[in-house]
């Protein structure tokens, strides 16, 4: 059983697979968020100029603004991510894992990635999607499937690399790996 102890912050919730961010804005204002990368390519996402590239992809609705802020967080950090599907908070290369307390979660060791498929680790790095289950959930969304129509695809094992259009890339600079449904 996963603990939901007194040290849990109000914006995170424990589960058998880790900690999930339940309130993004308080998390982003908390001392627990990881600071933006020192890498200039990643750090640019955390600047007003970087964020201003996204209005085309994210209209000014509350859910879209939260998705935009989540994307900016994921793109501007070296390894810290929040899954856009389940909101699990993790580091790139980290598999789902149970923690007995928030303190244990904060002081966990860096992930061992030898057992994770390279494509899954790449997907975590690029989009923030944490697991195959979340990938399947994201693909089962009819609006996501419709949005992929006409995109350039490249195969990578059982995964498909979705290359954004020139307009999308200019707005967001995103490449996403999707599970290829045609291979089962």
Widest sheet: strand ordering? 1-2-4-3
Largest sheet: 4 strands, antiparallel
The number of E-state strands comes to 7
Helix-and-strand structural type: alpha+beta
Features:
184 residues, alpha+beta, four-stranded antiparallel sheet, three-stranded antiparallel sheet, 7 strands
What's the short version?
With 184 residues, this protein is of the alpha+beta class. Helices cover 35% and strands 16% of the residues.
Describe the structure.
This protein is of the alpha+beta class and 184 residues long. 35% of the residues lie in helices and 16% in strands. The chain contains 9 helices and 7 strands; from the N terminus they run E-E-H-H-H-H-E-E-H-H-H-H-E-E-H-E. Strand 3 and strand 4 (88-91) form a beta hairpin. It has helices at residues 24-28, 40-43, 48-51, 62-76, 102-106, 118-127, 132-140, 142-147, 166-171; strands at 12-15, 18-21, 80-82, 88-91, 152-156, 159-163, 175-179.
Secondary-structure blueprint of this entry?
Blueprint: E1 12-15, E2 18-21, H1 24-28, H2 40-43, H3 48-51, H4 62-76, E3 80-82, E4 88-91, H5 102-106, H6 118-127, H7 132-140, H8 142-147, E5 152-156, E6 159-163, H9 166-171, E7 175-179
Antiparallel strand pairs: 1-2, 2-4, 3-4, 5-6, 6-7
């Amino acid at each position: 059983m996963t603990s939901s102890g007194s040290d849990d912050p109000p914006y995170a919730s424990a589960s058998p697979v880790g900690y999930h961010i339940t309130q993004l804005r308080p998390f982003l204002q908390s001392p627990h968020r990881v600071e933006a990368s020192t890498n200039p390519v990643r750090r640019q996402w955390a600047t007003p100029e970087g964020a201003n590239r996204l209005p085309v992809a994210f209209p000014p609705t509350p859910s879209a603004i939260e998705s935009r802020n989540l994307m900016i967080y994921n793109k501007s950090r070296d390894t810290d991510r929040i899954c856009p599907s389940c909101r699990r908070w993790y580091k790139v290369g980290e598999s789902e894992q149970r923690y007995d307390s928030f303190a244990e979660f904060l002081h966990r060791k860096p992930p061992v990635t030898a057992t994770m498929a390279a494509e899954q680790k790449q997907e975590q790095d690029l989009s923030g999607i944490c697991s195959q289950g979340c990938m399947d959930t994201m693909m089962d969304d009819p609006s996501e499937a419709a949005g992929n129509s006409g995109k350039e695809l490249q195969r990578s094992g059982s995964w498909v690399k979705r290359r954004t259009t020139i307009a999308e890339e200019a707005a967001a600079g995103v490449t996403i790996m999707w599970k290829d449904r045609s291979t089962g």
